[in-house]
Design a protein that fits this description.
Length: about 525
């Protein structure tokens, strides 16, 4: 048995993207001016190259996605060389501050360790007075070259073999692997080189005043870089969210318009009900007097010639129920989506107007806007209830939650339920291994499966149930589509007292937590 769920179609939306691009481009332009220039890199290299000559690479760390830290051992002392490939803050210098590292090193860091850790630096040089620096390392695998290309948006760190072919790169560009490395064409560097000096090398710093000045400068500017990056990320997220909401609204409006065609089908069904004996097999239409209209006009109703009179009547009632359901649910959904779209547009304007701020709270970075009210922290995914026997019951809210509930949260011996043959929520009851569900728990869970399905409006229907281990994901189908085996069926009617008790126990459980 396969349950398929409707997907909102993706359609091209017409709204002004140029405003978003201009804001993002301005942020990138300001951020790029904070990276080291070729002249500044030359100053750093002149300071550190003599000290690092013949140093041994003792350890390699990757404290950030695009930041590498090399521990270089020379006689009697160890130096930390920081290489940042961040587009906004590309730089290279010695650092006196240790940086926190992830518990598990990223794959690129592990590869560098396997290839060059323990090797000895042979040469450090700058390519063509550009923002590209190479470190030649003698290793047990042969000669390896580390290329630090700190070139703004195209910044990268690559490892080359003896023939100059790319073994691995930080950006993960697979087409580069095995290809000879070619330095990018130098463009527009003259204007950058003429920038006024930014680093006060006379402010102290002992043996490495240039590195000290750069480290102090970026320490002061780091928060601005974080905010600029967060603005870009937030702007990108807002654009995606707005497009999704607009697509959803468009689909709902289309559904509402389509359902409006069935407004009078309830009356037509009643007319057919009163004339069932007049419908003979093979009829394609029937003309009846509409006695619900004071004028008593005649109406011609299309029929399915391959179906019985009863089936034709039920089809009219079914389409009318679709209209009633859409007319009840969709206007509220559209109104909620319009409010959500308005909130997204307001936050976008806050970023455009420069009134967006980021605050750090207890070590966590949170985004706040001037107009957005603080919302209560959600209790987590899934609807949660407690059965009459005290067992936890989980109900998915949508296709994604159905998928997560069934295939991530539920255990193999848990009870799984779903309304028969109609779209609806997955329901899971947590059971001990080998235990059978108590009768009242089964009826509670089945009631919830009926309540959160398309059978809700009829107030009664059949619910299938089985062990979670007999539920498999349907290959090639949308999220939440499953194949069920060894299922049993229970007939359920919505019981107001049972539902009230479930909601009361659920509320009591939340209060206790």
């Amino acid at each position: 048995m396969v349950f398929l769920f409707r997907q909102v179609p993706r359609k091209r939306l017409c709204y002004n993207r140029s405003r978003f691009r201009s804001v993002a481009d301005e942020i990138l332009k300001c951020a790029d001016q904070m990276a080291l220039t070729a002249a500044e890199m030359k100053g750093v290299l002149c300071e550190i190259a003599p000290v690092l000559a013949h140093a041994r690479i003792q350890k390699i760390h990757q404290p950030g996605d695009r930041i590498l830290l090399f521990e270089l051992r020379v006689p009697t002392e160890t130096h930390r060389l920081l290489v940042s490939c961040e587009p906004e803050s590309g730089r290279l210098h010695l650092t006196s501050q240790p940086l926190p590292n992830p518990q598990r090193p990223p794959s690129f860091c592990q590869f560098l360790r396997a290839q060059v850790q323990g090797g000895r630096l042979k040469e450090v040089r700058q390519l063509d007075d550009d923002r590209i620096l190479t470190m030649t390392v003698l290793t047990r695998h042969g000669v390896r070259t580390i290329v630090c290309a700190l070139t703004g948006q195209t910044a990268n760190l690559l490892l080359l073999d003896e023939q100059g072919r790319v073994l691995r790169d930080l950006n993960g560009h697979r087409p580069l692997l095995g290809q000879p490395y070619q330095a990018p064409t130098k463009r527009g560097s003259g204007a950058v080189q003429e920038r006024a000096p930014r680093f006060d090398v006379h402010s102290g710093g002992g043996r490495f005043p240039v590195s000290y000045a750069i480290e102090a400068y970026y320490h002061d500017k780091e928060r601005a870089l974080v905010i600029d990056r967060a603005k870009r990320d937030r702007l990108r997220s807002l654009r995606k969210s707005l497009a999704k909401v607009l697509r959803r609204m468009e689909a709902w409006r289309e559904d509402l318009a389509n359902a409006g065609r069935y407004r009078d089908y309830g009356r037509y069904g009643e007319l057919l009900k009163a004339h069932l004996t007049s419908i003979t097999p093979g009829m394609e239409q029937i003309t009846l007097v509409d006695y619900y209209d004071p004028v008593l006009p005649e109406v011609t109703l299309p029929l399915d010639r391959s179906k019985s009179a009863l089936h034709n009547m039920n089809e009219y009632f079914k389409k009318h129920r679709k209209y009633v359901s859409a007319d009840r649910e969709l206007p509220n959904r559209i109104a909620d989506a319009e409010r959500e779209a308005g909130d997204l547009r307001r936050e976008i304007r806050l970023i455009e107007d420069g009134r967006w701020s980021m605050q750090a709270d207890a070590g966590r970075t949170t985004i706040k806007t001037a107009s957005a009210p603080e919302k209560a922290t959600p209790r987590g995914p899934f609807r949660r209830f407690v059965s009459a026997d005290g067992l936890p019951v989980f109900v998915g809210r949508n296709a994604a939650e159905n998928e997560a509930l069934t295939f991530h949260l539920a255990k193999s011996d848990d009870l799984w339920l779903h309304a028969r043959a109609v779209p609806g929520s997955h329901v899971v009851v947590r059971l001990a291994r080998g235990a059978d569900p108590p009768v009242e728990t089964l009826r509670d869970a089945a009631t919830l499966a009926l309540l959160y399905s398309d059978l809700r409006k009829s107030g009664k229907g059949e619910v299938i149930y089985t062990k979670r281990k007999w539920v498999k994901k349907a290959k090639g189908q949308a999220a939440g589509a499953v194949v069920v085996t060894r299922e049993k069926t229970i007939a359920v009617m919505l019981d107001a007292r049972r539902l009230a008790a479930l909601k009361e126990r659920s509320h009591s459980s939340e209060t206790a937590q």
